[in-house]
User: Fold these one by one.
Assistant:
Number 1:
Amino acid sequence: MSLVIEGIREAIEFVEELSETVLVGSALEVGSRLAEETPVDTGFAKNSWLVTNSPDDPGEPGENSINTQKLRGFEIGDTIYINNGCDYIKPLNDGHSRKAPAGMTVKVMPEVKSIINGQIADAERSGR
Protein backbone atom coordinates (compact mmCIF):
# COMPACT_ATOMS: atom_id res chain seq x y z
CA MET A 1 0.00 0.00 0.00
CA SER A 2 2.80 2.46 0.81
CA LEU A 3 4.22 2.00 -2.72
CA VAL A 4 0.89 3.12 -4.15
CA ILE A 5 0.78 6.16 -1.89
CA GLU A 6 4.40 7.03 -2.74
CA GLY A 7 3.58 6.66 -6.44
CA ILE A 8 0.61 9.00 -6.07
CA ARG A 9 2.78 11.54 -4.21
CA GLU A 10 5.40 11.41 -6.97
CA ALA A 11 2.71 11.87 -9.62
CA ILE A 12 1.27 14.88 -7.77
CA GLU A 13 4.75 16.42 -7.44
CA PHE A 14 5.38 15.86 -11.16
CA VAL A 15 2.07 17.50 -12.14
CA GLU A 16 2.75 20.45 -9.81
CA GLU A 17 6.26 20.92 -11.22
CA LEU A 18 4.97 20.63 -14.79
CA SER A 19 2.18 23.10 -14.01
CA GLU A 20 4.61 25.61 -12.45
CA THR A 21 6.94 25.33 -15.44
CA VAL A 22 4.07 25.84 -17.88
CA LEU A 23 2.54 28.76 -15.98
CA VAL A 24 5.82 30.61 -15.47
CA GLY A 25 6.92 30.00 -19.05
CA SER A 26 3.55 31.13 -20.38
CA ALA A 27 3.55 34.32 -18.30
CA LEU A 28 7.08 35.19 -19.41
CA GLU A 29 6.20 34.56 -23.05
CA VAL A 30 3.01 36.65 -22.82
CA GLY A 31 5.02 39.45 -21.21
CA SER A 32 7.62 39.21 -23.97
CA ARG A 33 4.96 39.28 -26.66
CA LEU A 34 3.38 42.37 -25.07
CA ALA A 35 6.81 44.04 -25.08
CA GLU A 36 7.33 43.05 -28.73
CA GLU A 37 4.01 44.59 -29.71
CA THR A 38 4.57 47.81 -27.74
CA PRO A 39 5.27 50.67 -30.14
CA VAL A 40 8.73 52.16 -29.74
CA ASP A 41 9.66 55.80 -29.72
CA THR A 42 12.12 55.95 -26.83
CA GLY A 43 11.73 52.29 -25.71
CA PHE A 44 10.54 53.35 -22.25
CA ALA A 45 7.05 51.79 -22.56
CA LYS A 46 8.43 48.62 -24.15
CA ASN A 47 10.94 48.22 -21.32
CA SER A 48 8.36 48.82 -18.60
CA TRP A 49 6.64 45.43 -18.76
CA LEU A 50 6.96 43.49 -15.50
CA VAL A 51 6.14 39.83 -14.86
CA THR A 52 6.00 39.09 -11.13
CA ASN A 53 4.17 37.01 -8.55
CA SER A 54 4.18 39.80 -5.99
CA PRO A 55 1.38 42.36 -5.99
CA ASP A 56 3.64 44.52 -3.81
CA ASP A 57 6.34 44.67 -6.52
CA PRO A 58 5.24 47.31 -9.01
CA GLY A 59 8.66 47.26 -10.62
CA GLU A 60 10.47 50.29 -11.91
CA PRO A 61 9.21 51.63 -15.24
CA GLY A 62 11.90 51.13 -17.85
CA GLU A 63 13.64 48.29 -15.99
CA ASN A 64 12.71 45.51 -18.47
CA SER A 65 11.74 42.77 -16.01
CA ILE A 66 10.62 39.95 -18.24
CA ASN A 67 12.74 37.27 -16.58
CA THR A 68 12.46 34.47 -14.06
CA GLN A 69 14.13 36.49 -11.29
CA LYS A 70 10.86 38.23 -10.40
CA LEU A 71 9.06 34.86 -10.20
CA ARG A 72 11.33 33.15 -7.68
CA GLY A 73 9.31 31.23 -5.17
CA PHE A 74 6.28 30.95 -7.47
CA GLU A 75 3.99 28.11 -6.45
CA ILE A 76 0.76 26.73 -7.85
CA GLY A 77 -2.04 28.87 -6.49
CA ASP A 78 -0.01 32.09 -6.67
CA THR A 79 -1.09 34.83 -9.04
CA ILE A 80 1.24 36.03 -11.76
CA TYR A 81 0.94 39.73 -12.61
CA ILE A 82 1.90 41.26 -15.94
CA ASN A 83 2.02 45.01 -15.48
CA ASN A 84 3.38 48.06 -17.17
CA GLY A 85 4.18 51.07 -14.98
CA CYS A 86 4.66 53.47 -17.87
CA ASP A 87 2.27 56.38 -17.31
CA TYR A 88 1.15 56.43 -20.95
CA ILE A 89 0.72 52.68 -21.52
CA LYS A 90 -3.10 52.88 -21.50
CA PRO A 91 -3.26 55.43 -24.36
CA LEU A 92 -0.74 53.31 -26.29
CA ASN A 93 -2.86 50.23 -25.75
CA ASP A 94 -5.98 52.16 -26.74
CA GLY A 95 -4.42 52.80 -30.15
CA HIS A 96 -2.87 56.26 -29.64
CA SER A 97 0.25 55.29 -31.61
CA ARG A 98 0.13 55.04 -35.40
CA LYS A 99 2.79 52.33 -35.06
CA ALA A 100 0.34 50.09 -33.19
CA PRO A 101 -3.20 51.35 -33.77
CA ALA A 102 -4.79 48.13 -32.49
CA GLY A 103 -2.91 48.18 -29.19
CA MET A 104 -0.79 45.46 -27.66
CA THR A 105 -3.28 43.46 -25.65
CA VAL A 106 -5.73 43.15 -28.56
CA LYS A 107 -2.98 41.47 -30.57
CA VAL A 108 -1.47 39.29 -27.85
CA MET A 109 -4.45 38.01 -25.84
CA PRO A 110 -5.75 35.78 -28.66
CA GLU A 111 -2.30 34.10 -28.66
CA VAL A 112 -2.44 33.05 -24.99
CA LYS A 113 -4.01 29.62 -25.59
CA SER A 114 -1.40 28.83 -28.24
CA ILE A 115 1.39 30.08 -25.95
CA ILE A 116 0.18 27.81 -23.13
CA ASN A 117 -0.14 24.82 -25.48
CA GLY A 118 3.41 25.47 -26.72
CA GLN A 119 4.71 25.62 -23.15
CA ILE A 120 2.98 22.31 -22.34
CA ALA A 121 4.53 20.66 -25.41
CA ASP A 122 7.98 22.04 -24.53
CA ALA A 123 7.68 20.84 -20.93
CA GLU A 124 6.57 17.37 -22.02
CA ARG A 125 9.41 17.12 -24.54
CA SER A 126 12.02 18.09 -21.97
CA GLY A 127 10.50 15.86 -19.29
CA ARG A 128 10.05 18.72 -16.82
Number 2:
Amino acid sequence: MSTVSTKRQRILPTSSHEPSYEENFSDWALFQAQQLRTCKPSGIDWKHVAEELEEVAARIRHALLSDLEIVLQQLLKLQYETSSNEWQRRSRSWKLHAAEHRNRVVDILENERTLELKLDEFVAKAYPRARQSASLETGHKKDRYPEGCPWSLEQILDTDFFPEPFKS
Protein backbone atom coordinates (compact mmCIF):
# COMPACT_ATOMS: atom_id res chain seq x y z
CA MET A 1 0.00 0.00 0.00
CA SER A 2 1.18 3.53 -0.69
CA THR A 3 2.16 6.12 1.89
CA VAL A 4 -1.27 7.67 1.43
CA SER A 5 -2.79 4.67 3.19
CA THR A 6 -0.24 4.99 5.98
CA LYS A 7 -1.14 8.66 6.42
CA ARG A 8 -4.84 7.80 6.50
CA GLN A 9 -4.29 5.26 9.24
CA ARG A 10 -2.98 8.07 11.47
CA ILE A 11 -6.33 9.85 11.38
CA LEU A 12 -8.25 6.88 12.70
CA PRO A 13 -10.54 7.59 15.64
CA THR A 14 -8.43 7.51 18.79
CA SER A 15 -11.13 6.86 21.38
CA SER A 16 -12.19 3.37 22.36
CA HIS A 17 -15.77 4.42 21.62
CA GLU A 18 -16.98 2.84 18.39
CA PRO A 19 -18.22 5.50 15.96
CA SER A 20 -21.84 5.31 14.89
CA TYR A 21 -22.61 4.47 11.26
CA GLU A 22 -25.63 6.80 11.37
CA GLU A 23 -23.86 9.77 12.96
CA ASN A 24 -20.52 9.73 11.18
CA PHE A 25 -19.96 7.40 8.28
CA SER A 26 -16.35 8.35 7.59
CA ASP A 27 -15.22 7.79 11.21
CA TRP A 28 -17.19 4.55 11.23
CA ALA A 29 -15.47 3.44 7.99
CA LEU A 30 -12.04 4.26 9.41
CA PHE A 31 -12.84 2.40 12.63
CA GLN A 32 -14.00 -0.64 10.64
CA ALA A 33 -10.80 -0.53 8.59
CA GLN A 34 -8.78 -0.43 11.79
CA GLN A 35 -10.72 -3.40 13.15
CA LEU A 36 -10.13 -5.35 9.94
CA ARG A 37 -6.40 -4.65 10.09
CA THR A 38 -6.28 -5.71 13.76
CA CYS A 39 -8.47 -8.81 13.61
CA LYS A 40 -7.62 -9.99 10.08
CA PRO A 41 -10.68 -12.26 9.78
CA SER A 42 -10.26 -15.30 7.54
CA GLY A 43 -12.42 -15.52 4.44
CA ILE A 44 -12.31 -11.74 3.97
CA ASP A 45 -9.79 -9.87 1.86
CA TRP A 46 -9.32 -7.63 4.91
CA LYS A 47 -6.37 -5.69 3.50
CA HIS A 48 -8.25 -4.49 0.41
CA VAL A 49 -11.56 -4.00 2.22
CA ALA A 50 -9.77 -1.87 4.81
CA GLU A 51 -8.09 0.17 2.05
CA GLU A 52 -11.44 0.74 0.35
CA LEU A 53 -13.06 1.89 3.60
CA GLU A 54 -10.18 4.33 4.17
CA GLU A 55 -10.56 5.58 0.62
CA VAL A 56 -14.29 6.23 1.10
CA ALA A 57 -13.56 8.27 4.23
CA ALA A 58 -10.85 10.21 2.39
CA ARG A 59 -13.24 11.00 -0.47
CA ILE A 60 -15.78 12.45 1.96
CA ARG A 61 -13.13 14.72 3.48
CA HIS A 62 -11.89 15.71 0.02
CA ALA A 63 -15.43 16.57 -1.10
CA LEU A 64 -15.90 18.80 1.95
CA LEU A 65 -12.60 20.58 1.30
CA SER A 66 -13.35 21.02 -2.40
CA ASP A 67 -16.86 22.39 -1.83
CA LEU A 68 -15.62 24.78 0.86
CA GLU A 69 -12.93 26.03 -1.49
CA ILE A 70 -15.53 26.86 -4.13
CA VAL A 71 -17.83 28.59 -1.63
CA LEU A 72 -14.95 30.74 -0.40
CA GLN A 73 -13.79 31.52 -3.92
CA GLN A 74 -17.26 32.77 -4.89
CA LEU A 75 -17.57 34.85 -1.72
CA LEU A 76 -14.19 36.46 -2.41
CA LYS A 77 -15.22 37.42 -5.92
CA LEU A 78 -18.53 38.80 -4.68
CA GLN A 79 -16.95 40.95 -1.99
CA TYR A 80 -13.71 42.10 -3.61
CA GLU A 81 -14.62 42.73 -7.24
CA THR A 82 -14.22 46.48 -7.69
CA SER A 83 -15.51 46.78 -11.25
CA SER A 84 -19.23 47.47 -10.96
CA ASN A 85 -19.75 46.30 -14.55
CA GLU A 86 -18.01 43.00 -13.85
CA TRP A 87 -19.89 42.60 -10.56
CA GLN A 88 -23.27 43.29 -12.23
CA ARG A 89 -22.49 40.87 -15.05
CA ARG A 90 -21.17 37.97 -12.97
CA SER A 91 -22.56 38.25 -9.41
CA ARG A 92 -25.63 36.11 -10.14
CA SER A 93 -23.41 33.25 -11.33
CA TRP A 94 -21.08 33.64 -8.33
CA LYS A 95 -24.05 33.50 -5.94
CA LEU A 96 -25.47 30.46 -7.70
CA HIS A 97 -22.17 28.57 -7.42
CA ALA A 98 -21.75 29.58 -3.78
CA ALA A 99 -25.29 28.40 -2.97
CA GLU A 100 -24.83 25.08 -4.76
CA HIS A 101 -21.59 24.26 -2.96
CA ARG A 102 -22.88 25.49 0.41
CA ASN A 103 -25.71 23.02 0.08
CA ARG A 104 -23.18 20.26 -0.58
CA VAL A 105 -21.15 21.30 2.49
CA VAL A 106 -24.29 21.30 4.64
CA ASP A 107 -25.27 17.85 3.32
CA ILE A 108 -21.84 16.43 4.16
CA LEU A 109 -21.87 17.96 7.63
CA GLU A 110 -25.35 16.57 8.34
CA ASN A 111 -24.00 13.06 7.73
CA GLU A 112 -20.55 13.62 9.21
CA ARG A 113 -21.15 15.31 12.55
CA THR A 114 -17.55 15.10 13.78
CA LEU A 115 -16.31 16.85 10.63
CA GLU A 116 -18.32 19.87 11.73
CA LEU A 117 -16.10 20.04 14.82
CA LYS A 118 -13.09 20.28 12.49
CA LEU A 119 -14.66 22.75 10.09
CA ASP A 120 -12.26 25.55 11.03
CA GLU A 121 -9.35 23.28 10.00
CA PHE A 122 -10.99 22.62 6.64
CA VAL A 123 -11.59 26.36 6.12
CA ALA A 124 -7.96 27.09 7.03
CA LYS A 125 -6.85 24.70 4.30
CA ALA A 126 -9.47 25.71 1.71
CA TYR A 127 -9.15 29.49 2.04
CA PRO A 128 -5.62 29.92 0.60
CA ARG A 129 -6.64 27.74 -2.34
CA ALA A 130 -9.81 29.79 -2.85
CA ARG A 131 -7.78 32.99 -2.68
CA GLN A 132 -5.41 31.73 -5.36
CA SER A 133 -8.27 30.50 -7.57
CA ALA A 134 -10.14 33.79 -7.28
CA SER A 135 -6.97 35.63 -8.23
CA LEU A 136 -6.35 33.44 -11.26
CA GLU A 137 -9.95 33.64 -12.45
CA THR A 138 -10.36 37.38 -12.06
CA GLY A 139 -6.84 38.41 -13.05
CA HIS A 140 -6.52 40.43 -9.85
CA LYS A 141 -3.40 40.14 -7.75
CA LYS A 142 -3.72 37.72 -4.85
CA ASP A 143 -2.99 40.48 -2.34
CA ARG A 144 -6.33 42.08 -3.25
CA TYR A 145 -7.87 39.41 -1.02
CA PRO A 146 -7.21 39.16 2.73
CA GLU A 147 -4.61 36.60 3.85
CA GLY A 148 -7.02 35.20 6.44
CA CYS A 149 -10.61 34.20 5.82
CA PRO A 150 -12.77 37.29 6.45
CA TRP A 151 -15.96 35.37 7.27
CA SER A 152 -17.10 33.40 10.29
CA LEU A 153 -18.09 29.75 9.99
CA GLU A 154 -21.70 30.83 10.47
CA GLN A 155 -21.47 33.21 7.50
CA ILE A 156 -19.76 30.62 5.32
CA LEU A 157 -22.58 28.13 5.96
CA ASP A 158 -25.45 30.65 5.94
CA THR A 159 -27.35 30.06 2.70
CA ASP A 160 -28.72 33.62 2.84
CA PHE A 161 -25.37 35.36 3.38
CA PHE A 162 -23.65 37.03 0.46
CA PRO A 163 -21.12 39.78 1.09
CA GLU A 164 -21.65 43.26 -0.21
CA PRO A 165 -19.39 44.36 -3.04
CA PHE A 166 -16.20 46.15 -2.10
CA LYS A 167 -16.41 49.92 -2.23
CA SER A 168 -13.17 51.73 -2.89
Number 3:
Amino acid sequence: MAGVTTKAGAPAGAKQLHNRLAVLRTDRGTTRRQLAEAVGVNVQIIGFLECGDYGPSVELALRLADHFDLPVEAIFSLTAFPLVSAQPNPTPAPSPTPATASPTTTPAAPATTTPPAASTMLPPPAGAHT
Protein backbone atom coordinates (compact mmCIF):
# COMPACT_ATOMS: atom_id res chain seq x y z
CA MET A 1 0.00 0.00 0.00
CA ALA A 2 1.72 3.14 -1.18
CA GLY A 3 1.68 6.22 1.00
CA VAL A 4 1.33 4.59 4.43
CA THR A 5 3.45 2.91 7.06
CA THR A 6 2.23 0.38 9.60
CA LYS A 7 2.52 0.61 13.37
CA ALA A 8 4.30 -2.74 13.30
CA GLY A 9 6.81 -1.41 10.76
CA ALA A 10 7.59 1.69 12.83
CA PRO A 11 11.09 1.97 14.30
CA ALA A 12 11.58 1.24 18.01
CA GLY A 13 10.70 4.27 20.14
CA ALA A 14 8.57 5.87 17.43
CA LYS A 15 5.57 7.77 18.70
CA GLN A 16 2.03 6.96 17.64
CA LEU A 17 0.58 9.36 15.11
CA HIS A 18 -2.74 10.78 16.32
CA ASN A 19 -5.31 12.23 13.95
CA ARG A 20 -8.70 13.89 13.79
CA LEU A 21 -9.77 12.38 10.47
CA ALA A 22 -12.91 10.63 11.75
CA VAL A 23 -14.08 13.73 13.61
CA LEU A 24 -13.46 16.02 10.65
CA ARG A 25 -15.05 13.62 8.19
CA THR A 26 -18.21 13.04 10.23
CA ASP A 27 -18.46 16.72 11.14
CA ARG A 28 -18.68 17.50 7.43
CA GLY A 29 -21.12 14.67 6.70
CA THR A 30 -18.66 12.81 4.47
CA THR A 31 -18.41 9.03 4.20
CA ARG A 32 -15.09 7.19 4.18
CA ARG A 33 -15.69 6.37 0.53
CA GLN A 34 -16.30 10.03 -0.38
CA LEU A 35 -13.14 11.11 1.44
CA ALA A 36 -11.11 8.34 -0.19
CA GLU A 37 -12.31 9.39 -3.65
CA ALA A 38 -11.60 13.06 -2.90
CA VAL A 39 -7.97 12.39 -1.96
CA GLY A 40 -7.33 9.53 -4.40
CA VAL A 41 -6.88 6.51 -2.13
CA ASN A 42 -8.70 3.25 -1.41
CA VAL A 43 -11.49 3.47 1.16
CA GLN A 44 -9.63 0.94 3.34
CA ILE A 45 -6.74 3.40 3.69
CA ILE A 46 -9.10 5.95 5.22
CA GLY A 47 -10.36 3.31 7.66
CA PHE A 48 -6.82 2.30 8.62
CA LEU A 49 -5.79 5.94 9.07
CA GLU A 50 -8.80 6.72 11.25
CA CYS A 51 -8.11 3.71 13.45
CA GLY A 52 -4.45 4.66 13.80
CA ASP A 53 -3.27 1.47 12.09
CA TYR A 54 -1.40 3.41 9.39
CA GLY A 55 0.36 6.72 9.09
CA PRO A 56 -0.03 8.73 5.89
CA SER A 57 2.77 9.68 3.56
CA VAL A 58 3.62 13.37 3.50
CA GLU A 59 1.84 13.61 0.15
CA LEU A 60 -1.36 12.02 1.48
CA ALA A 61 -1.26 14.16 4.65
CA LEU A 62 -1.00 17.27 2.45
CA ARG A 63 -3.89 16.11 0.24
CA LEU A 64 -6.03 15.51 3.34
CA ALA A 65 -5.10 18.92 4.75
CA ASP A 66 -5.98 20.53 1.42
CA HIS A 67 -9.29 18.68 1.31
CA PHE A 68 -10.28 19.87 4.81
CA ASP A 69 -8.73 23.31 4.22
CA LEU A 70 -6.67 22.96 7.40
CA PRO A 71 -2.96 22.88 8.20
CA VAL A 72 -1.53 19.36 8.48
CA GLU A 73 -0.85 19.85 12.19
CA ALA A 74 -4.57 20.50 12.81
CA ILE A 75 -5.24 16.96 11.52
CA PHE A 76 -2.15 14.98 12.61
CA SER A 77 -0.07 15.16 15.78
CA LEU A 78 2.51 13.16 17.70
CA THR A 79 0.65 14.00 20.92
CA ALA A 80 -2.96 13.09 21.57
CA PHE A 81 -5.55 15.74 20.78
CA PRO A 82 -7.67 16.82 23.76
CA LEU A 83 -11.03 15.12 23.90
CA VAL A 84 -13.94 17.32 22.92
CA SER A 85 -15.81 16.13 26.02
CA ALA A 86 -12.89 17.29 28.21
CA GLN A 87 -13.06 20.86 26.90
CA PRO A 88 -15.16 23.35 28.85
CA ASN A 89 -18.49 24.35 27.38
CA PRO A 90 -18.37 27.89 26.07
CA THR A 91 -20.70 30.32 27.78
CA PRO A 92 -23.40 31.44 25.36
CA ALA A 93 -23.33 35.12 24.46
CA PRO A 94 -25.98 37.19 26.19
CA SER A 95 -29.03 38.13 24.17
CA PRO A 96 -29.14 41.72 23.02
CA THR A 97 -31.17 44.05 25.21
CA PRO A 98 -34.34 45.48 23.70
CA ALA A 99 -32.75 48.95 23.45
CA THR A 100 -29.92 47.59 21.29
CA ALA A 101 -31.84 44.87 19.47
CA SER A 102 -33.19 47.07 16.73
CA PRO A 103 -32.20 50.42 15.28
CA THR A 104 -35.91 51.32 15.05
CA THR A 105 -36.37 51.49 18.83
CA THR A 106 -36.78 54.96 20.23
CA PRO A 107 -33.80 56.31 22.10
CA ALA A 108 -34.10 56.66 25.83
CA ALA A 109 -34.70 60.13 27.20
CA PRO A 110 -31.48 61.86 28.23
CA ALA A 111 -30.70 61.60 31.88
CA THR A 112 -31.61 64.68 33.86
CA THR A 113 -28.94 66.30 35.95
CA THR A 114 -29.36 68.21 39.14
CA PRO A 115 -28.32 71.82 38.74
CA PRO A 116 -25.37 72.90 40.85
CA ALA A 117 -26.07 74.48 44.19
CA ALA A 118 -26.78 78.21 44.08
CA SER A 119 -23.70 79.00 46.15
CA THR A 120 -21.41 77.63 43.43
CA MET A 121 -23.11 79.70 40.75
CA LEU A 122 -22.75 83.12 42.44
CA PRO A 123 -19.54 85.10 42.38
CA PRO A 124 -17.92 85.62 45.77
CA PRO A 125 -18.99 88.79 47.57
CA ALA A 126 -16.82 91.85 46.96
CA GLY A 127 -13.93 92.02 49.35
CA ALA A 128 -14.15 88.34 50.33
CA HIS A 129 -10.89 86.43 50.55
CA THR A 130 -10.75 83.17 48.69
Number 4:
Amino acid sequence: MRKLSPYLKALVGFVAPGAVVIGSSVLDGSDGGSTITAAELVTAGVAMIVTAAGVYGARNAPTRPEVEG
Protein backbone atom coordinates (compact mmCIF):
# COMPACT_ATOMS: atom_id res chain seq x y z
CA MET A 1 0.00 0.00 0.00
CA ARG A 2 2.89 2.37 0.71
CA LYS A 3 4.04 2.13 -2.89
CA LEU A 4 0.62 3.25 -4.10
CA SER A 5 0.04 6.02 -1.56
CA PRO A 6 1.64 8.81 -3.66
CA TYR A 7 -0.73 7.95 -6.48
CA LEU A 8 -3.98 7.36 -4.57
CA LYS A 9 -5.21 10.93 -4.94
CA ALA A 10 -4.61 10.81 -8.68
CA LEU A 11 -6.32 7.42 -8.89
CA VAL A 12 -9.40 8.78 -7.14
CA GLY A 13 -9.20 11.86 -9.36
CA PHE A 14 -9.19 9.50 -12.34
CA VAL A 15 -12.09 7.27 -11.28
CA ALA A 16 -14.48 9.83 -9.75
CA PRO A 17 -15.18 12.06 -12.78
CA GLY A 18 -15.55 9.05 -15.05
CA ALA A 19 -18.06 7.52 -12.67
CA VAL A 20 -20.04 10.75 -12.61
CA VAL A 21 -20.13 11.08 -16.39
CA ILE A 22 -20.97 7.41 -16.96
CA GLY A 23 -23.58 7.56 -14.19
CA SER A 24 -25.27 10.55 -15.77
CA SER A 25 -25.09 8.86 -19.17
CA VAL A 26 -27.48 6.12 -18.12
CA LEU A 27 -30.17 8.48 -16.84
CA ASP A 28 -33.39 8.97 -18.78
CA GLY A 29 -32.40 12.48 -19.88
CA SER A 30 -29.41 11.18 -21.82
CA ASP A 31 -30.57 9.58 -25.06
CA GLY A 32 -33.31 7.77 -23.19
CA GLY A 33 -30.80 6.21 -20.79
CA SER A 34 -30.68 3.04 -22.85
CA THR A 35 -27.07 3.27 -24.04
CA ILE A 36 -23.88 5.19 -23.46
CA THR A 37 -23.01 7.13 -26.59
CA ALA A 38 -19.51 7.48 -28.04
CA ALA A 39 -19.53 11.19 -27.19
CA GLU A 40 -20.30 10.38 -23.56
CA LEU A 41 -17.45 7.86 -23.44
CA VAL A 42 -15.03 10.41 -24.90
CA THR A 43 -16.24 13.02 -22.41
CA ALA A 44 -15.73 10.56 -19.55
CA GLY A 45 -12.23 9.68 -20.76
CA VAL A 46 -11.17 13.29 -21.14
CA ALA A 47 -12.61 14.21 -17.74
CA MET A 48 -10.77 11.30 -16.13
CA ILE A 49 -7.40 12.11 -17.69
CA VAL A 50 -7.54 15.87 -17.13
CA THR A 51 -8.70 15.57 -13.53
CA ALA A 52 -6.14 12.88 -12.65
CA ALA A 53 -3.34 14.93 -14.20
CA GLY A 54 -4.41 18.00 -12.25
CA VAL A 55 -4.61 16.12 -8.97
CA TYR A 56 -1.29 14.39 -9.55
CA GLY A 57 0.43 17.63 -10.51
CA ALA A 58 -0.88 19.65 -7.57
CA ARG A 59 1.45 19.76 -4.65
CA ASN A 60 0.32 18.72 -1.22
CA ALA A 61 0.18 21.43 1.39
CA PRO A 62 3.22 21.39 3.66
CA THR A 63 2.62 19.55 6.88
CA ARG A 64 2.53 21.60 10.03
CA PRO A 65 4.67 20.49 12.95
CA GLU A 66 2.80 19.11 15.90
CA VAL A 67 2.18 21.73 18.57
CA GLU A 68 2.74 20.50 22.08
CA GLY A 69 0.33 21.91 24.56
